[in-house]
Design a protein that fits this description.
This protein is α/β, with parallel strands linked by helices and 307 residues long. The protein is built from ten helices and seven strands.
């Protein structure tokens, strides 16, 4: 696996464009509890992408992987403490511009690894993939052979429980708990504080109550059982993810459309799209304008009849 920012120009030029996967990690900055760093999601996504790159080169003969620098672009958030959040279209445009720049230089295959599994985060990544695919449509129906293949890998492995709880906003059963801490112990143990004495925490607020608490800045820390975490569990979780992603990599190279391989179910909800509020506002403005024209014409017509 090669790191993009470490390459020399001649090394970059020799990469086989049709056998190189560009791996793009994205994540967020927010509070995960006193035992984990603020950038846990970002560090996790980069480490998973690097692990995937190694497996691609080991299992696909003659293939290369290129790790792009991590982007701290977070849309959904679990807590408000130290949370750095971006507007949805910022992440969408970042991915489109990034993929488009590589694609113009001949690269075809791209995989986005997100440390944030929120509904808007994954929908926007899928949206960027859709836009890039539509740009290469031939005769408005058929995708060109050289269109970029962009996979939102985390859209394929999100657990059913998370999907059912988080259709519009992130409402996950744990945050900074057993899962997050286990991956932290695997990927960046030097940044994980002692877990002894950390009690299990159950988040009392769920659904709308959690949404209100989040908007009012009342959520911080962790919930879950970080004291049960271990690097062995982190290894199993990471390997399980990679095992789910590798078939998608293989299917994409065989010509299966990225749009058929990624489906988080979040994208079925219009509210999760990046410019939903803009389109909604445009609709109301158009509705108001058409109503104004209608009543103006009606008043004019009635005035002409009276004369």
């Amino acid at each position: 696996m090669k790191t993009f920012s470490h390459l020399k120009p001649h090394e970059f030029a020799t990469l086989p464009r049709d056998r190189t996967w560009v791996l793009i990690p994205v994540g967020g900055i927010e509070d995960h509890g006193s035992h984990l760093p603020l950038g846990s999601d970002l560090m996790e996504s980069r480490s998973l992408a690097a692990r995937l790159g190694e497996r691609i080169e080991a299992e696909f003969a003659g293939h290369h992987s290129l790790l792009f620098p991590s982007a701290a672009l977070n849309i959904d958030r679990q807590t408000t403490a130290a949370s750095i959040r971006f507007r949805p279209h910022v992440l969408r445009d970042y991915l489109i511009d990034c993929v488009d720049s590589f694609h113009r230089q001949g690269f075809q295959y791209f995989a986005v690894v997100s440390g944030n599994y929120g509904p808007k985060q994954l929908t926007v990544i899928e949206e960027a993939s859709q836009i890039l695919a539509k740009r290469s449509k031939r005769f408005l129906f058929f995708t060109g052979k050289k269109s970029p293949k962009v996979l939102s890998l985390c859209s394929s492995d999100i657990e059913l429980e998370k999907k059912s709880r988080s259709l519009i906003w992130a409402d996950f059963p744990e945050h900074g708990g057993k899962r997050d801490t286990s991956l932290g112990l695997l990927f960046f143990p030097e940044h994980v504080e002692s877990l002894s004495g950390l009690p299990g925490v159950e988040l009392e607020k769920t659904g709308w109550s959690k949404k209100r608490a989040l908007e009012q800045g009342e959520l911080s820390g962790y919930w879950g059982t970080p004291s049960e975490a271990s690097s062995e569990l982190g290894t199993r979780l990471a390997d399980q993810k990679i095992a789910q992603w590798l078939p998608l990599i293989a299917a994409s190279e065989k010509g299966v459309s990225s749009l058929n391989l990624i489906n988080s179910r979040y994208a079925k909800i219009p509210l999760n799209y990046s410019l939903f509020m803009v389109w909604l506002m445009a609709f109301f403005i158009l509705f108001f304008f058409m109503g104004w024209i209608y009543f103006s014409m009606l008043t004019l017509f009635q005035g002409a009849q009276l004369q």
